[in-house]
């Protein structure tokens, strides 16, 4: 049976999830793709760290070794930050590889460059995992809402912030105590700034903006406000009125201008995002034909994000033309 060779860039939480998913769902992938999927190489940063990777897999700190693998067709990119993720993805596309990425910071800024280069090279870039973990929002918009004129998107795009707000309201805790519980559960990093200050959700919103509206607003003009300024008194006062604070990413067209924000918003019980709790994410799409639909599910984590990457791969994969020509 034909073998699809893939490489994995990064072996943190998401990278490990992809590696395990390929192994545990080998039969499902074989049935879908009519081929075996082989993780041929893993790019790591620290060679001294012990990892549970099969001895047959090339483990390297040198990306050039990965590009040199004969017959490489797919690169799963799970690196944090703009670089070297962007450069690696661009080089992989130049080589003629499909790229599946979970790197929201990189893709928010350089996604259009990668998509254009992929189109030129006849390969596929999957980025479902950049926006809302395991929720298939990218594919829903790009495949199921092609005729609808999408007027607005409102979303909860950061599970850490949503968890903290839920804990504050349900357990009557101040922000710092709720944040500490998030850390204990592994929902918050040692430095949670990107999550609680809104930068994580901002990057995801910019990716959705490009997909929905074909462009992005001026980044400097997007209002980004975190949840750290909300007190327990604020949360409890809202709750007594039947309202809830949610950290909402919002984008819509106002005439010829895109308006976007990421900030705490008071919403009533009839709002689609009102009941979204804990680490869940949700995306509400306002379409001209379908009306208002909301997708809800796990917004982060090892396997939800790996699921998004594997499904992206399975849906978008096609044999690489250059390799077919050689064979």
From TrEMBL:
Annotated binding of L-homoserine, by residue: 189
Catalysed reactions listed for this entry: L-homoserine + NADP(+) = L-aspartate 4-semialdehyde + NADPH + H(+)
Binding residue positions for NADPH: 104
Domain Homoserine dehydrogenase catalytic: 136-312
Annotated Aspartate/homoserine dehydrogenase NAD-binding domain residues: 10-125
Pathway(s) it belongs to: Amino-acid biosynthesis; L-methionine biosynthesis via de novo pathway; L-homoserine from L-aspartate: step 3/3; Amino-acid biosynthesis; L-threonine biosynthesis; L-threonine from L-aspartate: step 3/5
InterPro entries reported in the protein's UniProt record: Asp/hSer_DH_NAD-bd (IPR005106), HDH_cat (IPR001342), HDH_CS (IPR019811), HDH_short (IPR022697), NAD(P)-bd_dom_sf (IPR036291)
Catalytic residue positions: 204 (proton donor)
UniProt record, GO biological process: methionine biosynthetic process; threonine biosynthetic process
Keywords recorded for this protein, A-Z: Amino-acid biosynthesis, Methionine biosynthesis, NADP, Oxidoreductase, Sodium, Threonine biosynthesis
NCBIfam families: PRK06349.1
Similarity remark: Belongs to the homoserine dehydrogenase family.
Protein's recorded name: Homoserine dehydrogenase
Organism annotation: Heyndrickxia coagulans
